[in-house]
Write a structure and sequence with these properties.
Helix content is 74%, strand content 0%. By secondary structure, it is mainly α. The chain starts with a helix and ends with a helix.
Length: 289
Amino acid sequence: MSKGTFINVCRFGLLLVLLAIWEWGWDLRKHVSWIVPTLLDPYFISKPSLIWTRFLEMGCFANTRGDWLINIDGTFMKCVYAGKGSLWTHTLATLKNTFWGFLVGVGSGIGVGMLLGRSEMLAKIFEPYIVAFNSLPRVALVPLIIIMFGLGDVSKIVTALTLVFFVVFFNTFEGTRGVDRDHINAARFLGANAWQVTWTIYVPSALAWVFASLTPAVSFALIGVIVGEFIGSERGLGKVIIEAEATLQTADMMVALFVLMVIGVVLVLGVREVQRRLLRWQRHHAETF
């Protein structure tokens, strides 16, 4: 058995053990109550079987009687586009807002970071304002953002980009400031103009710093959207979680949490794949390309 196969087997085995403890651990409390923690109470975290059942129902794959809806003409799509919203519509809303918040936050963070990183004068002028705004917990701004932009998608996008912006900005700023001056002088000696210096020296130098910030930036974008949906939203997975909490439906809450976990993992893997391709000139990326 190869090392990679052994690692995957161990991972899968650990997952099965955890699911088994989660599913049947609480049933053992009557026999060995001293070893079973209260956390395993289905009232708090439900059970994998109940979560799977609710996933099928919320995802319009089956109804409450257990009948599959996919085999019935039109029933699945009617459920997906139901007025109350299905798991699909809530997930799509969260994904869309996360994407735009991430995109705008990364774009503005890179642009401002490159600008201030190249201009020491501008950096000194804006430094106190950046430090002051960055010291504010962005979550505390969410009520104000919702008052300003309403309960729609714009407020979720703005919340996400406020979290993403500073993560990307500071990395881009440090990457730009850390450019080797000898490289810049050599490029200028060879006749490179300001745009060529930026594109061939500053951008490649800052790119590794930028990508180092993108993995946490994806998570922050998702966090920003969910927090915005917690406080006030028309749709989204955050709304599903809040409604489940209000009605003590822990299975529904766990379904939304697992969907968020899958979304986060897929987004991070996508960023890492783009990083691996764009930074393949670096040794540790070239070895895995």
